[in-house]
Amino acid sequence: MTKITAAITAVGKYVPEFILTNEMLESMVETNDEWITSRTGIKERRILKETGRGTSFLAIKAAEDLIHKTKLDPKEIELVIVATATPDMQAASTSAFVATKIGATEAFSFDLESACSSFLYGMSVVARYIESGKYKKVLLIGADMNSSMIDYTDRATCIIFGDGAGAVLFEPNTEGLGLQDEYLRSDGNGREFLKVAAGGSILPASEDTVKNRLHYARQDGRTVFKFAVSKMADVTEKILERNNLTKADVSWLAAHQANKRIVEATAKRIELDMSKVMMNIHKYGNTTSATLPLLLEDYENQLRKGDTIIFAAFGGGFTWGAIYFKWAYNQTN
Ligand code: UT7
After folding, report:
1. 152 close to ligand 1 (CB < 6 Angstrom)
2. 3-state SS of the chain: helix, strand, coil percent to 5?
3. Alpha helices, DSSP H only, in the chain?
4. Are 326 and 309 in contact (CB under 8 A)?
5. What pLDDT is recorded for position 145?
6. Which atom of ligand 1 is nearest the CA belonging to 262?
7. Which residues are catalytic?
8. What pLDDT score does 333 carry?
């Protein structure tokens, strides 16, 4: 029997119109463009401003972009996964709302939350559904409205995060393209270093939590940075080694966009030329679950059928990993 692999066959994206520049941040907190650019590589990020809109708005727009580009009948979609760290609300599934709104009325759906590794882990989950032969059209959306948990008086976090979404369609492939191998890890000792302390089950919302600003994301940047640099590079090296790949075999590195220096460190570890490293952090900042699909959309017209892409991510929890992937199409329009 021919082996079925899980290939990406289309991508779509959405970022909000409002642009928050480094210069604007200079008037909000004690910072400056030079510091932000040299320490992170970020120049601007997109923010969803309209009240009453959440992560689902971003996810729906990205999915609609994909559907519009491919002329896909949304009724053919069998599963919708929304990878996100900022769901619309607790208890109600964001993905169910998204699936219904995009017309995927024959699909089941669920949310997948693993901080900045959500999309990477989502790729692994989708691959199992496709490889089993049971499902043929699975939509994986990485979407985060980070501005909903950012304290715009905290210069350690507000300069980093932005809002956005990317949608990716997975279909079965019999040419050996798509997901080849994965190396995924997590370590719960890391959760103190990057978190939103209140609003979950451990510390539900109360007057005190609001007063103490505990509903905002806080991170010990230096510690997270140290772990991100070493862990993301480790798994990237590992996935190459165990698949007998050298840097010459790698067409692209698609690494989570948290900090340009972390991505550069990963590329350096495998001695990959920066011309093969996808980068868009300057435009969007860290969009958590959306960074990888946004990279794919931005680079789609440069990707060629058969290209080897190494995906890598690191995020809160801690969660991290790398995926060895083969691109399945040339963009025609
Ligand atoms: O996506 C999930 C994973 N997240 C990450 O991977 C993020 C990892 N961390 C980082 O990217 C970096 O740690 C940051 C960008 C958050 C910070 O950069 P850093 O080079 O690690 O700076 P730092 O925290 O060590 O701070 C250096 C100095 C400090 O001043 P002192 O103590 O040396 O006097 C900070 O107070 O820079 C100061 N600083 C700032 N200065 C201007 C911190 N934030 C700012 C700021 N503007 N926005």
Report:
1. no
2. 40, 25, 35
3. 22-26, 33-40, 55-70, 94-101, 118-131, 155-158, 207-211, 221-242, 260-269, 281-284, 291-299
4. yes
5. 98
6. 6
7. 116, 256, 286
8. 61
Residue 68: predicted pLDDT: 97
β-bridge partners, 311: 254, 323
Backbone angles phi, psi at 325, to 5 degrees: -135, 145
* Residue nearest ligand 1's atom 38 by CA: 156
Phi-psi region of 306 (alpha: psi -120 to 50; beta: other; left: phi over 0): left
Say if ligand 1 is within 6 A of residue 158 CB.
no
Q: Give CA separation, 74 vs 20, 79, 87, 167, 324, in Å.
A: 33, 10, 22, 13, 28
**Domains defined for the chain, CATH in brackets:** 5-175 (3.40.47.10), 179-326 (3.40.47.10)
Q: pLDDT per residue over 273-304, tens digit each?
A: 999 999 999 999 999 999 999 999 999 999 99
pLDDT lower than 70: segments of the chain = 333
| Helix or strand holding residue 151 (H, E) | none
- Which of 34, 191, 222 has most ligand 1 atoms within 8 Å of CB, for mutation? 222
Nearest Cα to Cα of residue 162 among 319, 16, 320: 16
